[in-house]
Amino acid sequence: MRYYIETYGCVANKVDSEIIMAALKSAGFERVNRAEDADLIILNTCAVKEKTIAHMLSRIRRLPKDGNKFVVTGCLANVLPDKIRELAPNAEIAGPREWNKLSKILGVPLPEKKAGVPQIRTEPNLASVVISEGCTGTCTYCATKFARKYITSFRPGDIVRSVREAVEGGRKEIRLTSQDTGAYGIDIGTNLVELLGEILDSVEGEYRVRVGMMNVDHAVRLIDEGLLDVFEDPRIYKFFHVPVQSGNDRILRLMQRNYSVDDFREVVRKIRRRFPLASVATDIIVGFPTETWEEFLESAQLIEELKIDVLNISRYSAIPGTVAARMKGQVSSNEKKRRSKYITEAHLRVGKEWNEQYVGKTYKTLLIERGHHGAVIGRTEHYKPVVVQGEELGEFRDIYITEALPLFLRGKTE
Ligand code: SF4
């Protein structure tokens, strides 16, 4: 049986596809690169934004559906199942946490857990490892929750096995991921700090760990539980992705984000007090229902005040079925565009100023991705992207930083 798979969305979704591919391979399925040549088509969808949903629906329309089994999985399977059925009446639909159902649809056994199981890794130098699925949040704008549900943490032993297998397989960068790494272990009596300690104690070799996104409420707790101590280990990137979403407390309450702007300030200040050059990434949604210009400005000012060097900006989009989609005071798309442009410019200024600090210094850098024109992109210990000419991928090199740009650095080998 020949299968074709198309994967969209976050790292967790990519790992889902890697595990599904391993299960299909061990059942004798052959992967093909053209949907037209496949007996089985799997579309692993994302439903994070309106634009993404529109793209998923157009893939459902366009992918060939005659004479093959057409399977839709991923978050859209739980967010808009009726719409999928309308566009593809014969589609088999199962969400990311309905693998019993998906296993029956595919006719192959799928694992109950997503750590410590066979996975066909698609990147040569890095490995993504899922540590838990779901979260503890009830954010009013989010549809991911419909698919990923409440948190289920995977056993530390299974996660350590996945990390060790990846490192022994030559991967130098391990990306620990989930909808909220900060909530890890809350359901099994452990936490992210203990997990990181266990990985570092049990897995030998030269590698680096990138800890994925954690929510502010859990970051506040974890810092008190020793998070910054375990981050002292040189194998952990001094990179913290903590989505704040808004710089205004009234909007955070409407979003049902369980923290205040001051909590976020405290987290960033404690991180930077311990690691002055740590890279801090955050996410901001502009144009949440009823957000005034003044409230939006508080988000832009927060980025400047705390010198947030990595920023993911989203224009609020109303996803069917979410509480926020039914709220009054929806902001116009022109206004969202104006706010997105304003905060992007503010961030580029902050990014340039922050990155200047690295110039003239040398950092042990992992060369991890291919860039343009023969360049490679490395990551310093702060997970700062550095463009370097003519070097081998997958190696650590001492890189002297020659130039700072708003979103990355340029450097050369010493
Ligand atoms: S924490 Fe909030 S935004 Fe994140 S997946 Fe959970 S409900 Fe969605």
CATH architecture descriptor text of the largest domain: Alpha-Beta Horseshoe
Strand content: 15-25%
CATH topology of the largest domain: pyruvate-formate lyase- activating enzyme
**Mean of the pLDDT scores?**
96
Terminal Cα separation, in Å? 51 Å
Count the helices. How many?
14
Offer a concise description of the structure:
With 414 residues, the protein is α/β, with parallel strands linked by helices. Helix content is 36%, strand content 22%. Helix 9 (216-224) crosses helix 12 and helix 13 (293-305) runs parallel beside helix 14.
Describe this structure in words.
The protein is 36% helix and 22% strand. By secondary structure, the chain is an alpha/beta fold. It folds into three domains: 2-106, Methylthiotransferase, N-terminal domain (Rossmann fold, 3-Layer(aba) Sandwich); 126-356, Alpha-Beta Horseshoe (pyruvate-formate lyase- activating enzyme), CATH 3.80.30.20; 359-413, OB fold (Dihydrolipoamide Acetyltransferase, E2P) (Beta Barrel). The strands form five sheets. Strands 2-1-3-4-5 form a five-stranded parallel β-sheet, sandwiched between helices. It has a five-stranded mixed β-barrel with strand order 14-15-16-18-17. Helix 7 (156-168) crosses helix 8 (192-202) and helix 9 packs across helix 12. The N and C termini lie far apart (51 Å). The chain binds iron/sulfur cluster. Iron/sulfur cluster (SF4) binds at residues 135, 137-139, 142, 144-145, 179-180, 215.
